[in-house]
Every structure is written in C-alpha cells, then in structure tokens.
Amino acid sequence: ATTLTGDVTMNNKLVVYGDVRVHSNGGTQTFGIYKGATSTYNWYDTILAKSLKRTGDTTFTIKSDTANAGFSAVHMTWNDLRFYTAQLAGQSSDLDVSDLSTYERMRITGSGNVGIGTASPSYKLEVTGTAYVSSTLGVGGATTLTGDVTMNNKLVVYGDVRVHSNGGTQTFGIYKGATSTYNWYDTILAKSLKRTGDTTFTIKSDTANAGFSAVHMTWNDLRFYTAQLAGQSSDLDVSDLSTYERMRITGSGNVGIGTASPSYKLEVTGTAYVSSTLGVGGATTLTGD
Length: 289
Prior knowledge:
Elements (H helix, E strand, L loop, with lengths): L40 E5 L4 E6 L3 E8 L3 E7 L3 E8 L16 E6 L4 E3 L8 E3 L54 E5 L4 E6 L3 E8 L3 E7 L3 E8 L16 E6 L4 E3 L8 E3 L21
Parallel strand pairs: 7-8, 15-16
Antiparallel strand pairs: 1-2, 2-3, 3-4, 4-5, 5-6, 6-7, 9-10, 10-11, 11-12, 12-13, 13-14, 14-15
C-alpha cells in the first residue's frame, strides 16, 4: 500500500482500475473536482452518454443523452430545480447548459411553486398548456376559472350553483348554437325547462303515462296547461300543448279561461261558478238568457 501525506500534483491522467475512496478517521474529508477560480468543471462518460457539469458556485447540471438522438437533463441552482427533455435529430451530446432553456419542461422554484410549460410559476402548480386528468380531480378549496370552460361530459354539482359578480352584471344562461334552443330535463322529478327561439320559454312538470302541467312564457303572454292522459309520454313538445291550454294572461293584461284570445279583463269560455257573493262595481250587460 502507498500512503501520501503531502499534496500530489499530476500533469497527466490518473487511471484507477478499482474503487476511489476519500476518508479519514475524523470523517472531515470530502471528494471534490475543482478547476481554477471559476469553479467550473465537466465530467463526461462516453459509454453511457452521461455528463455532469458545474458552472459557477450555484449552478449544477446532470445530463444524459445520446448523440444525434436527444437528451434529458436536471439543472440545479441555489433557488430552483429545472427539468429538460428533447428528441433531436443531429443534436450532439455536448449541448451546453446555456442552450437548455428551449427544452425546459418543468421547474420547481425556491418558493415551492411548480411550473409545467412555464419558467416562472406564480402558483403551487401552474400549467401553461393543456392538462388532462384521467380520473377524479379533487379541489379542497374555492376554485376560480378565468378562462372559458368546455365540458364534453356531465357536470355534477352537489350544492348550489351561483353566477354573480361584484357589479352584478353576470347572468346564468344555457345556449346552443344560433337558434337559442335548449332543453333541461330532470329524469327523477320529471320536470323540464325548454327554450325555443328568443321569445318562448316553457317550464313543464309531468309523469310518463299520467299527465303534466306546464307554464309557457313568451314576450307577450303567459299560458298555463294541465292534462291527465293515459299513455302520454313525458317528452310532450311545446308545440303540442295548445290542446291542453287552460288559462292565458295576455300582454294587455286580459285573462282568458277556456280561451286563448280574451277580449276582456276576465273572459271565461264555459261555465263559471261563484260559491259566494259576486260584486260588480259598474254596469252589467247580459248577452244571453
């Protein structure tokens, strides 16, 4: 065995066919690579195409690549951790650290923020680009969405749904194409909400093979429908309701019972019955017997 108690300077290579260990009884020695005042060094394994590079006192990079294929890298500084990947035809394996910014994929900042697709994340997780969750996404706190949200499947909310703002200008709407036609249907309670065109709005409650009740609103009247029908399906269209209209309040304030076009404040087509006193404040005209 050979013991060296002083400094050793070598002007050429040192090849060791075996382990290299640095230790002492006190355990204070460390193993280091140093080059001049810049503290810059490179270590490269030509067989495994892996490299280790240190530039300055705070920058450290580990990179694994294959010539003319691509690379992956981890870049560590005093305040962040960066991850890089690339698959490049013709790319040499000695790509410099300064060239890595184009291929940065993820960064963990000193504050603990994680950025994917961004080098300066402002949140604990910030994704610049499209994110996909194949299973359940749980959110423990309030959620703020600043952009549009498109859903290809159902949205289930176990609680209230509110649309509001400090200015109170937002509204809640359901819209489908240029026709402004939509349907909402509750299969459990057999209730539906339907809008056809810009002026027609219907709320309907029914039970399959039993009947239904409905309220139909347009810009100039309010209509009420009821029916008890054997064999009637629960998806009766608005256009089929006229047969079952029971009362209408027109835009002029006339109320018609049994008629869709009342000419008086109250017009009843059919028999009317008053079980108590009927008071008439003005003149009374009787046109029948």
